[in-house]
Design brief:
By secondary structure, the protein is mainly alpha-helical. It contains 12 helices and 4 strands. It has a two-stranded antiparallel sheet with strand order 1-2. A two-stranded antiparallel sheet has the order 3-4. Strand 3 and strand 4 form a beta hairpin. The longest helix has 33 residues. The radius of gyration is 25 Å and the shape is globular. The relative contact order is 0.08.
Length: 296
């Protein structure tokens, strides 16, 4: 009997299914979206494991890098933070909705928490509703403190990591974005180029080309949508103060805004920020603006 050296494992929360083949391999992780085209017949766990082996044998297959314990811990913190942020926003929406049902309309946003005591004092509302609104206000403050505590932990980890400090030098990259980049990139060696990393974040045009005629559509929106959202938000922060920037990046953004829509420019700038982050981590360099280069 041949020795089984290629093993496809379909990972599950409570059970695992294995499919073995008799050719050599190196243990790697594959994204489910790249395995799906190789599933033959009806989908089941054993067919998935066989498809994993088939996908792993492809020379052009793209694999997922294995995260270390530190990256997994930071990723868990980010997921908990996102959950708390969504819950906090839900509390705000509930406060607005309950007050609106009694004819009280307030501006959107977190300002309602600060104005709630004055609103309750000005309007005669049912006592039980007042108690409910105060309970929601207390819950909001609890969620806000939990989010702030997690953000302090993330900032503390960033201060202890020299590579994260170099990411913070990039315009538009704040502590949360730098922490997510460190989780996704690591040492950046799993990506062959800056474009590959930008493509993994879904920030490159989606292609539909045939017959030698290239057709580029909107961005592909693949990969981690949270990372993509943070990069786009950082790009928009740069665009808001682009008139104050005299470096090469500011000139490039102004020239692009002169001929393209702001949404297109935001995605293009987010793409550039992702490429800069990859270059800094892959090459071990620091971000240098045009002023810094001229001064040197």
């Amino acid at each position: 009997m041949n020795t089984v050296t290629l093993i496809g494992i379909d990972l599950g929360k409570h059970s695992f299914h294995l499919h073995g083949q008799d050719e050599g391999h190196q243990a790697k992780l594959i994204s489910p979206q790249f395995v799906r085209p190789f599933v033959q017949g009806n989908k089941n766990d054993f067919a998935d494991a066989q498809a994993i082996c088939e996908a792993a044998s492809r020379p052009s297959m793209r694999f997922v890098s294995v995260r270390n314990e530190a990256q997994q811990t930071v990723s868990a913190l980010h997921r908990v933070r996102e959950s708390l942020v969504r819950e906090r926003m839900g509390v705000i929406n509930q406060l607005h909705a309950f007050l609106l049902e009694f004819g009280i309309s307030l501006p959107r946003g977190q300002a309602i928490i600060r104005r709630l005591p004055a609103v309750l004092a000005e309007h005669e509302l049912p006592p039980r509703l007042v108690a409910l609104l105060e309970r929601l206000q207390t819950h909001f403050k609890y969620l806000d403190e939990q989010i702030a505590q997690i953000e302090r932990e993330l900032c503390q980890q960033l201060r202890e990591d020299e590579r994260s400090q170099r990411l913070l030098e990039i315009p538009g990259i704040g502590p949360i974005t730098a922490s997510v980049l460190m989780t996704e990139l690591g040492d950046a060696q799993q990506f062959g180029s800056a474009r590959q990393f930008a493509a993994s974040a879904g920030l490159v045009p989606r292609q539909y080309s045939t017959g030698g005629k290239p057709t580029l559509l909107g961005i592909s929106k693949r990969g981690d949508k949270n990372l993509r959202r943070l990069l786009v938000q950082g790009a928009r922060a740069i665009m808001q103060r682009v008139e104050q920037r005299t470096d090469r990046l500011g000139i490039w953004v102004r020239e692009l805004l002169a001929r393209r829509h702001s949404n297109v420019v935001a995605c293009a700038l987010a793409n550039k920020l992702a490429r800069i982050a990859w270059a800094i981590l892959a090459n071990g360099t620091n971000y240098r603006s045009q002023q810094a280069v001229a001064a040197a």
